[in-house]
Amino acid sequence: MKYFHKAKLIFTALGVLFLSQKTFSQDKKVVVSQDPKFEQLLNEKRKINSSITINDRYKIQIFNGDSENSKKTLIDFKKENKNIDATIVFSTPAYKVWVGNFKTRIEAEKNLNELKKKYPNAFLIKPNK
Q1: Which segments constitute the SPOR domain (predicted)?
Q2: Ranges of H-type helices in the chain
């Protein structure tokens, strides 16, 4: 019993001694090396994101569906309408093709009437992302 008491006392003393020491486990600096293309891609993404203004502008949605058909619709639209911006937006579970970036509703509706000839399901939207 005395032996157990002394051993317990020694282990407690050693535990306090080790726990009270200052630790230096997080002092080293980590250097992360990255591919130079990463920065280039990031800058391109920032440029694209800054060019997409969607808060105060009107757009026309000409397609809503799967990925392949949305890509086909976008390519066909861009061939016929080189002066109007167009993009694919993913909103679960469908892909949407948005065209235009109109400042006023009147301008957007004028273009909508023209686009409805080829895309009868097209409609006007004002995204709020």
Answers
A1: 52-129
A2: 2-19, 36-51, 67-80, 105-115
Dist CA 97 CA 62 (whole Å): 6
* Structural domain total, the chain: 1
Task: For residue 38, tell me if it sits in a domain.
Answer: no
Inside any domain, residue 14: no
Pairing verdict, β 86-91 and 123-125: unpaired
Does residue 107 form part of some domain? yes
How many Å apart are CA 94 and CA 68, to the nearest integer? 11
For residue 40, tell me if it sits in a domain: no
Residue of 63, 83, 60 lying closest to 74 (CA atoms): 63
Per-residue pLDDT of the chain (129 residues; tens, 9 = 90+): 667 777 787 878 776 666 666 555 566 788 888 888 888 888 887 777 766 655 678 999 999 999 999 999 999 999 999 899 999 998 888 999 999 989 899 999 999 999 999 999 999 998 775
Which DSSP category does 9 fall into?
H
CATH number of the domain enclosing 72: 3.30.70.1070
